[in-house]
User: Fold this.
Amino acid sequence: MQAFGAIVVTVQTKADRWKLLSEGVEKYNWFPTSPFFGPPVGSNPYGIEGYKSLAYELAESFDWLVPDWIVLPICYGDALFGMWRGFNELIDAGLVGKMPRFVAAEIYGSLTAAIADGSDIVPFVDKNYDTAATSISAQQSTYQALATLRKTSGLPVTVSEDELLNCGTLLSSREGLFVEPAAAAALAATIQLRRNGTISHSDSVVCVLTAGGLKAPTFQTQAASKPIGGVGSVTAVVDAVRLQRRIDLQTGSRLSQ
Assistant:
């Protein structure tokens, strides 16, 4: 942000963000592009309108055949709600024939709790551990996210830190996709639902990967193979690489099970 000339201001806590922004909106007519009070209700409406383009591009790339499931990492549910609105417009225009079922991959489980309780209120849940998926680390999602899940016969899935790490490693090693921890939550939720039979083998699924791994470049290094050092000949290098390759293959086999 600073490289592009922005003025960056820091605050002590997350709650202080909303206090500062709310006062700026009221006193100085600031234009907020994110939540500016709590509990949150999602981003600026113009921002949510922008997320509709995800639905347009996805439908076009699928030749107007809508996937059975779309799985997204969820914080306040802006992209989720925006995609739902986008597919509604496509249906109204006669370009697609159905609404996909949406899955909200979350960390602390506020949507999971609301669905379990049959409530229209998304509760504030405990933060029982720190997560690397900071961009979806909200302890309270929004009604718009909950309503979207219910309107599409969707469901929330809570994912663990180990699942994030494993799925991040799978995406990079199997698909060549280096993603941030939050993005790996989409694959983690999909694997959970596939294993318990909610998603069948014949279902088509799209995982929305929300950002690249350079947002958290050290997250996957804890699972990565370490540099090979202290070798003095080509033969020693080849032997070391062969050994590391066997270890990597065994690790990849365990992750994919």
In short: DSSP finds eight helices and four strands in the chain. The longest helix spans residues 234-256.
